Amino acid sequence: MMFRNLFVAVLLTSAMGASAATSTGVSGKPVSALSQSFEAKGQAALAKGQPTAAIDAFETALAVDPANANAYIGIARAYEAQGLTGKAVRYWGDALQLDPNDIAALEGQGLALVARGANARANVNLQRIKTLCKTDCAAATRLQTAMTEAAAKAAKAPVTASAEPAKPAAAKN
Fold first, then answer.
1. Which H or E element spans position 25?
2. With contact defined as beta carbons under 8 Å apart, do 132 and 103 qualify?
3. Three-state secondary structure call for residue 23
4. Structure pTM?
5. Domains of the chain by range and CATH?
6. How far does CA 13 lie from the centroid of its chain?
7. Signal sequence: where (predicted)?
8. First to last CA, the chain
9. How far apart are CA 135 and CA 109, in angstroms?
10. Measured on CA atoms in the order 77, 79, 85, 86, is the torsion positive or negative?
11. For residue 113, which of 8, 10, 118, 136 is within the disulfide window of CB 3.0 to 4.6 Å?
12. Are 69 and 102 in contact (CB under 8 A)?
């Protein structure tokens, strides 16, 4: 317990010292250097195909600096790598809370929504991307393509009958 408290104290002291050397994150707010270093570790873990380690690093980056939108994006990508699109949608949303105009986050959340079958919600993101991109936009094209492919796949899917027997209608007296 004592070592844990010591670790937290060292971490917070380091964060305060590192906050002098900050850069601007996607939200336009300064992000501490310590948070950025944990973010980089998360990106490296993702590149190595280690989403669990990546999530740990990104969560540490957020503990140091909750304004690090890139850490939320990293967690979303890690959850997608694990096939957990529902959790990914949440973290894409957290990144969008910090910067509602982040096209990469809008696209990522839109693609995760499509994967979950929520094309109507993904369409809201698509319209937002089109509004932000005054000209042709690759993010809008990718999201539109994913939505079109998902709709085509759903149209081709066979309709299956319910395994439950039909219930008789209640007699009226």
1. none
2. yes
3. strand
4. 0.72
5. 11-156 (1.25.40.10)
6. 29
7. 1-20
8. 72
9. 21
10. negative
11. 118
12. yes
Q: Is the model more confident about 47 or about 170?
A: 47
Q: What percent of the chain is modeled with pLDDT above 70? A: 75
pLDDT for 19 beyond 70: no
Q: What are phi and psi of 23, to 5 degrees?
A: -130, 175
Mean pLDDT (the chain) is 82
How would residue 166 be classed by pLDDT, with cut points 50, 70 and 90?
Answer: low
Sequence letter at residue 75: I
Q: Is the pLDDT of residue 42 over 50?
A: yes
Name the helix (H) or strand (E) containing 68.
Answer: none
b (16+ CB within 10 A) / e for 71-108: bbbbbbbbbbbeeebebbbbbbebbbebbeebbbbbbb
The span from the CA of 118 to the CA of 88, in Å, is 14
Mean pLDDT of 148-162: 78
* 3-state secondary structure (DSSP) of residue 112: helix
Other beta carbons within 10 Å of 11: 14
- By percentage, how much of the chain surpasses pLDDT 90? 65
**pLDDT reading at 133 higher than 60:** yes
Euclidean distance between CA atoms 104 and 39, whole angstroms? 17
- Are 90 and 73 contacting, i.e. CB atoms less than 8 angstroms apart? no
Is the C-alpha dihedral spanning 84, 70, 109, 153 positive or negative?
negative
| Structure tokens belonging to residue 169 | 């209608």
